[in-house]
């Protein structure tokens, strides 16, 4: 009788061991499956974000805004090196430098990340453009160069003559010329930023463009107020 009970006990233990083992394997398989699913889910956002990184408009924005910002800093440095400048204008020039310097570094980082050159490819000359001699397609006359930002590279960029005029100006004249030129310069930057907002894809670039529109329009209003006094 004792042998029989012992045999039943052993059998029961064996069945229990098999049941526990099966449950353990099932739990392990379930955990493994859950881990795999979690890993796949966590990888998906990264893949999606890398697929929707940037487009040509983002590259154009960075390539154009970098030299645009660099010229604004150059203009500010010119003014800051002079004597007899309105303290409010000096403060504004420093604000422009402090804002646009870091933005230049950020945009240079984007271009490097995208594998894009720092400058756009040279545009074709007018002689290579079809229809350049067609009626109604004449280029504006040279008189446009007399207006700040109209004789440079477009989008409010100053020409060499504009920069020389600022370099040679002194005192109150330099303050007013700086304000006049920078208003035109800022308007060009806003145009470029608005293009990025409309057709850009890279979220950080679009965000920067929105910030440029907001901050530089506020500075335009401030500068115009200084000129109107």
UniProtKB/TrEMBL annotation:
Annotated keywords: Signal
Origin: domain of life: Bacteria
Keyword Signal: yes
Species: Mycolicibacterium gilvum (strain DSM 45189 / LMG 24558 / Spyr1)
Protein name: Uncharacterized conserved protein
Positions of transmembrane segments: none
Cited PROSITE patterns: PROKAR_LIPOPROTEIN
Residue span of region Disordered: 28-53
Coiled coil: none
Biased composition regions of type Low complexity, renumbered to the chain: 28-52
Keyword Manganese appears in the UniProt entry: no
Signal peptide bounds: 1-26
Domain DUF305: 58-227
PANTHER family, per database record: SLL0788 PROTEIN (PTHR36933)
Pfam families cross-referenced by the UniProt entry: DUF305
């Amino acid at each position: 009788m004792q042998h029989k009970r012992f045999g039943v006990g052993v059998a029961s233990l064996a069945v229990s061991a098999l049941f526990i083992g099966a449950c353990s394997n099932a739990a392990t398989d379930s955990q493994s499956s859950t881990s795999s699913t979690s890993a796949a889910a966590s990888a998906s956002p990264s893949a999606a974000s890398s697929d929707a990184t940037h487009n040509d408009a983002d590259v154009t924005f960075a390539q154009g805004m970098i030299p645009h910002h660099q010229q604004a800093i150059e203009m500010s440095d010119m003014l800051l090196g002079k004597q007899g400048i309105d303290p409010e204008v000096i403060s504004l020039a420093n604000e422009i430098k402090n804002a646009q310097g870091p933005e230049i570094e950020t945009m240079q980082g984007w271009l490097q990340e995208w594998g894009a050159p720092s400058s756009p490819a040279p545009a074709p000359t007018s002689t290579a453009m079809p229809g350049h001699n067609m009626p109604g397609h004449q280029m504006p006359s040279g008189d446009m160069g007399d207006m700040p930002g109209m004789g440079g590279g477009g989008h409010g960029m100053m020409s060499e003559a504009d920069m020389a005029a600022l370099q040679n100006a002194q005192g109150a004249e330099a303050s007013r010329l700086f304000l006049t030129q920078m208003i035109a310069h800022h308007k060009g930057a806003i145009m470029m930023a608005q293009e990025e907002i409309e057709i850009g894809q890279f979220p950080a670039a679009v965000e920067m463009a929105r910030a440029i529109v907001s901050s530089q329009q506020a500075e335009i209003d401030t500068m115009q107020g200084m000129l109107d006094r």
